[in-house]
Specification:
The chain is an alpha+beta fold. 39% of the residues lie in helices and 17% in strands. It has helices spanning 9-27, 32-47, 50-53, 57-70, 100-110, 123-127, 177-185, 194-197, 199-212, 220-234, 258-268, and strands at 5-6, 81-88, 91-98, 113-122, 131-134, 140-143, 156-165, 170-176, 300-301. The strands form 4 sheets. The chain has a 3-stranded antiparallel sheet. The protein is elongated, with a radius of gyration of 25 Å.
Length: 316
C-alpha cells in the first residue's frame, strides 16, 4: 500500500532540491528505471525524517546519490542502507551506513560467490552443544539452531557468515559477541541508528564485511561501499561526489513542529466558498476558521505521485 507523506514546508523544500538534482542522481544508477525507483524510495526516507531534513543538503543529496549509484534502497524494511545524522563542525550532517542486506545485494550482483548467508547464534544453541566450529586445516561449522530465534543483543552468542565459492569450496568467518562489540565500540554510530535499533542485523553485517575481504573479484561498487562504511565507522567525513549538483550548499532545512506546521497550513488555506443560508432557517454561516483536514487534500502527496522521470506533462 502506498503511504501518504504530509508535505510540510521542509518536505516541499526537499522535494524541490531533489527534483532539481534528479537527472544527475539517476544518471549514476545501474539504469534509469532502477534510478527512478530508488530515488522515489530515498525521497520517502528523507521526507519522513525531520532529523535528516535538518542535515546539510550536500550530505543528504550526496548520500542519496551514493545509495542510488550502489543500487541500494535507502531506509525501509530492506535494511540495505540508512542515513544517520551526526554533528560535524557544528552542522547536522547525514552519514551513509550500509546494512547487511545491502552487502548481500552487492555480493549477489558481483557474482563472486554462488551464495552468501549470515547467521546469528543464540546463547541456548551454544549452551546445549548445538553450535561449534573449528579452524586449522579442516575448518568447519556445526550449527543446529533451536526453536528460539535471536531477536535481541542479550540473546546473541556469536554470528557468522558463509560463502560458497564459484570455483568450489566454502569460505566462512565466525565472530563471538565480544568481537562484534569491540567492532561496534570503534564506530561513531555505536550509540545511534541501527546499532541501537537493529543490533542483530548489524552483528551479521559485521561478519559479512569481514568475510568479503577473503572473497575473489570484489567489484568497484563493493569497494566503494566498504570505503564509505569504513569512513562512517571511523567518524571521518564521507567524501560524497558533488560535481553537477545544484542548490546543495544552502543552509539545512529545519522542519516546523507538527502542530505549528498544521496551524500554518490552516492559516494559509483560504476558506471554501459558502452559500448564505435562507433567512428563514436562521442558521449562522460556518466559521472560516473551522476547516477539516479534508480541505487540505492538496497538501498530501505520495512518492509515487512525484514525477522522477523529468518528463514534462502533456500539453507543455
Amino acid at each position: 500500500m502506498t503511504q501518504l507523506i504530509q508535505m510540510n514546508d521542509a518536505s516541499l523544500k526537499w522535494g524541490a532540491i531533489i527534483k532539481k538534482n534528479q537527472t544527475r542522481i539517476i544518471r549514476g544508477a545501474p539504469n534509469a528505471q532502477i534510478g527512478e525507483r530508488l530515488l522515489s524510495i530515498a525521497f520517502n526516507a528523507v521526507a519522513y525524517n525531520e532529523k535528516i531534513m535538518a542535515c546539510t543538503p550536500a550530505s543528504v543529496i550526496g548520500g542519496i546519490f551514493e545509495t542510488v549509484k550502489l543500487g541500494l534502497t535507502l531506509g525501509g524494511p530492506m535494511q540495505e542502507a540508512w542515513l544517520i545524522p551526526f554533528k560535524v563542525k557544528g552542522l547536522q550532517t547525514a552519514t551513509l551506513v550500509i546494512g547487511y542486506q545491502g552487502y548481500r545485494n552487492l555480493v549477489d550482483r558481483s557474482r563472486s560467490v554462488l551464495d552468501l548467508h549470515p547467521y546469528a547464534v543464540h546463547h541456548d544453541d551454544f549452551a546445549k552443544g548445538a553450535f561449534s566450529y573449528q579452524l586449522g586445516t579442516d575448518p568447519k561449522i556445526v550449527h543446529r539452531p533451536g526453536a528460539e530465534p535471536v531477536l535481541t543483543e542479550n540473546q546473541l552468542y556469536a554470528a557468522y557468515a558463509v560463502g560458497r565459492l564459484r570455483g568450489g569450496g566454502v569460505q566462512f568467518v565466525v565472530m563471538l559477541k565480544k568481537e562484534i562489540d569491540a567492532h561496534r565500540a570503534r564506530s561513531r554510530a555505536k550509540n545511534n541508528g541501527p546499532w541501537v535499533t537493529d543490533y542483530v542485523p548489524m552483528a551479521m553485517k559485521t561478519t559479512i564485511r569481514s568475510l568479503i575481504k577473503y572473497l575473489p573479484k570484489v567489484s568497484d561498487l563493493m569497494a566503494r561501499a566498504m570505503e564509505l562504511d569504513d569512513q562512517s565507522d571511523r567518524g571521518v567525513t564521507q567524501a560524497f561526489e558533488s560535481d553537477g549538483f545544484v542548490d546543495i550548499e544552502t543552509e539545512p532545512v529545519i522542519a516546523k513542529p507538527a502542530m505549528e506546521q498544521l496551524k500554518a497550513n490552516l492559516e494559509a488555506t483560504p476558506p471554501p466558498p459558502t452559500a448564505t443560508p435562507p433567512a428563514s432557517q436562521g442558521a449562522d454561516p460556518p466559521s472560516p476558521d473551522r476547516l477539516s483536514l479534508a480541505d487540505q487534500e492538496d497538501e498530501l502527496l505520495t512518492a509515487d505521485e512525484v514525477d522522477w522521470s523529468g518528463t514534462p506533462p502533456s500539453g507543455e
